[in-house]
Write a structure and sequence with these properties.
- By secondary structure, the protein is an alpha/beta fold.
- It folds into 2 domains: 160 residues, Rossmann fold (3-Layer(aba) Sandwich), CATH 3.40.50.720; 34 residues, no CATH class.
- Helices cover 45% and strands 11% of the residues.
- It has a 5-stranded parallel β-sheet, sandwiched between helices.
- The two termini are 29 Å apart.
Length: 207
């Protein structure tokens, strides 16, 4: 069994480097057209576009500040002008500042919270009307284990990632959505899933 995203359009925020780039390439390998979001990293974003194109997929880059509502709106409008639908949103953009709690300035706090958490809210809000009108869509929010654990020196980051985790919880599901989980578990792609309890519940309960 293979996973195909042929005919799908995906927007990945913070995709100029790192995890965002890797996700963009993987989406391209699965057949999706990928829009590479960046902020002030055009050269690196174009490198990501080239790497995605090397998989045979279509890709293009767009600059937008995902922590700014107007910029996010303009980005999504630009995507929808070029594509019939936006099928996949990956909220990956984020920053990490290591500062002791008492030394964390308000500006540093706002920078991390806005980039890592507010951006997820803004991007979800911007794409959902189109997804709802088409009756389908997928939003993937990239968080961190530190959102569960916390860590000294990373208060703003852990707070933001905890917010991303809880923001994502509790979607209403349909019975037929469990079928795909069963097919996956029965496939070779799930060969390493042994002795685990999966809980496909729309994120209502996470443990």
């Amino acid at each position: 069994m293979t996973f195909s995203l042929a005919g799908k359009t995906a927007l990945v925020t913070g995709a100029a480097t790192g995890i965002g780039r890797a996700i963009g390439i993987a989406l391209g390998q699965a057949g999706a057209t990928v829009i590479v979001n960046h902020l002030g990293r055009l050269e690196q974003a174009q490198q990501t576009v080239a790497l995605i194109a090397a998989t045979g997929a279509k890709a293009w880059a767009i600059e937008a500040n995902v922590a700014d509502a107007a910029s996010v709106t303009q980005m999504v409008e630009a995507v929808l002008q070029r594509h019939d639908a936006l099928d996949i949103l990956v909220n990956n953009a984020g920053i990490l500042l290591e500062t002791p709690f008492l030394d964390t300035s308000e500006a540093e706090w706002d920078q991390v919270i806005n980039t890592d958490l507010k951006s997820v809210f803004l991007c979800c809000r911007a794409v959902l009307p189109s997804m709802l009108s088409h009756g389908s869509g997928c939003i993937i929010n990239i968080a961190s284990e530190l959102g569960y654990l916390g860590r000294a020196g990373f208060t703003a980051y852990t707070t933001a990632k905890a917010g991303v985790i809880t923001l994502t919880l509790g979607r209403v599901g349909r019975p037929e959505e469990i079928g795909g989980t069963a097919v996956f578990l029965a496939s070779e792609q799930a060969s390493f899933y042994c002795g685990q309890t999966l809980s496909p519940n729309g994120g209502a309960l996470m443990a």
